[in-house]
Amino acid sequence: MKAIKYFVVGAMISITAPAVAQDIEYGKALVPISQALKADPNNADAAKDLVKSYMKEYKKDPEALVALGSTFLGVKNYSKAEEIANLVIEKNKKNAKAQAEAYILLGDAEAMKDATGNGGGAASHYATAMSLDPKNPSGYTRYASVYRKINPKLVEETYAKLRAEIPDYPIEAEAGHSFFSANKFDLAFENYGKANINKLDEAKMVEYLISAIQLKKYSDALSISKTGVSRFPKNITLNQLGLWSAVETGSYDEAIGIAEKFLQLEGEKNSTDYTYYGKALLGAKRHNEAIAQFEKAMEVDANATEPLARLSEAYAGLGDEDKALQYSEDYMKKNPNASPSDYAKLAQIYVAKAEKGIDKSANFTKAIGIYDKMAEKYPSIASWAYMIAAGVADKSGNIDLGASYNQKIVDELANKADRDADETGYLTQALRLLGFYYWSEKNNLEAAKPYYQKLIELDPNDKNAKAALGIE
Q1: How far is residue 229's CA from residue 211's CA, in Å, rounded to a whole number?
Q2: How many other CB atoms are found less than 10 A from the CB of residue 370?
């Protein structure tokens, strides 16, 4: 078999020693063996006498022997696990089911001892198990796990074979888990979506929800969370991601209800949890309560930056521009990855102060300066930044400055070959305002005409352009 990269670890495919039911006869005998091996895992002779007695007692029971091999696998004694698996294969040549279980044990050993290397050996053993016992789902699911990252198509084909053999096996759920473990969140979400959500176990419910979050399918995530919480009400992750999803979908009242229950659950809450609760309260215009949650988020993690931005929003909502400005500036200093919207919010605080008559000229100038910085830092949105800056300049009473920003838009976009719809909108507005500026403000129709001529190409029905150009 061609060598392949194997990305599966034991924890992901549940190949560590299984928990054997105590009511199974050999299960009771395995308990002291497991305890002795775990107490001294590096001692090859640990539980030697217990193992010898066990193998004598169950030498004709292949299921019990495979369970013993899995117990050795649980303490990473690969050679002993393989020795027992090979013994089962040798002694049960006419028992295909027993041999299949032994090959699965061999595959598991290969997987665990070479979890990041060549997984061809593990896949080969699982394939043998599939051929020996087509009704044993473990061979298929293990085989699929080997290929979940490198060959999703083969994984789908493997599960199709399993479906043909065992039609009522929860294949979609197993496929969802396999793809989730390989970080194939789109395929995990797709397969979990085909499964019966009311039959998913708790761990798979969490995986389904995380897959939706990873894909930013927040409406779906909220729905999954509701179902999950109804079945597993104390699961921290199902509640937590339900809160996040509700906020992301703008369902603020619902988010508040989720948060109130979530914060009562046992388990540590992080800064992000309190931040999301605050965002829900902020969305519901409960500014003071939101501030309390953002402050709690900062108490939990003094290095968190988002609570600072949200505190600024909350104080802006209360009309306290000084506090809003303080937190916004703190946020910008601590967050080198501030987004354009963060810059815009800071600029708007300066505008709000200016509109209240507080250091009017200085604050308008600061706001405009931020839009200049945005245009420099984010060239792809420069024309948008100039458009807003032009509006702020006009609002400040400096129409000449406003015209200069509109001219920057024209210079940038008028001859741009790949101009998109938004940019065409910015250009249209800039031309309209510059035409008005020269014709009405400067009483210079000749200076206005070039702008109106360009405008009429973009908007043939513009009334001012038609009037300025004498078009009926």
Answers
A1: 16
A2: 23
Is pLDDT of 38 > 70?
A: yes
- Cβ neighbours of residue 216 under 8 Å, at least 6 residues apart? 248
Statement: residue 119 has pLDDT above 70: no
DSSP-assigned states of every residue in 396-421? HT-HHHHHHHHHHHHHHHTT-TT--H
* Of the candidates 441, 371, 359, 452, the residue with the CA atom closest to the CA atom of residue 405: 371
167-209 pLDDT per residue, tens? 888 888 988 887 887 788 998 999 999 999 999 999 999 999 9
Q: What is the pTM of this model?
A: 0.66
Q: Which residues contact 421 (CB under 8 A, 6 or more apart)?
A: none
Report in angstroms the alpha-carbon separations of 136 from 99, 278, 370, 383. 11, 50, 65, 63
What is the C-alpha separation between 380 and 389, in angstroms, rounded? Answer: 16
pLDDT band at residue 14, thresholds of 50, 70 and 90? Answer: very low
CB 208 within 8 A of CB 176: yes
User: Is pLDDT at 27 greater than 50 in this prediction?
Assistant: yes
Q: Each residue of 153-182: b (16+ CB within 10 Å) or e?
A: eebeebbebbeeeeeebbbbbbbbbbbbbb
Least confident of 8-12, 106-110, 113-117, 321-325: 8-12
Percent helix / strand / coil, the chain, rounded to 5: 75, 0, 25
Instruction: Tally Cβ neighbours within 10 Å of residue 376.
Output: 10
How does pLDDT run across 56-67, given as a tens digit for each residue?
Answer: 999 999 999 999
**CA-wise closest residue to 208 among 222, 229, 224:** 224
- Cα separation, 241 vs 226, in Å, equals 10
Q: Residue 121: what pLDDT?
A: 83
Tokens of 310: 């949200």
- How would residue 159 be classed by pLDDT, with cut points 50, 70 and 90? confident
3-state secondary structure of 16: coil
CA 224-230-235 angle, 5° bins: 80
The confidence score (pLDDT) of residue 180 equals 87
Can you tell me the distance from the alpha carbon of 24 to that of 29, in angstroms, rounded to the nearest whole number? 9
- Phi and psi at 92, nearest 5°, equal -130, 50
Rounded percentage of the chain residues whose pLDDT exceeds 70: 93
Closest CA to 257 of 273, 241, 246, 272: 246
- Burial letters 137-152, b for 16+ CB under 10 A, else e: bbbbbbbbbbbbbeeb
Tokens of 121: 């050996």
Q: Are residues 387 and 426 in contact, defined by beta-carbon separation less than 8 angstroms?
A: yes
Find out whether 140 and 110 touch, Cβ atoms under 8 Å. no
Identity (one letter) of the amino acid at 363? N
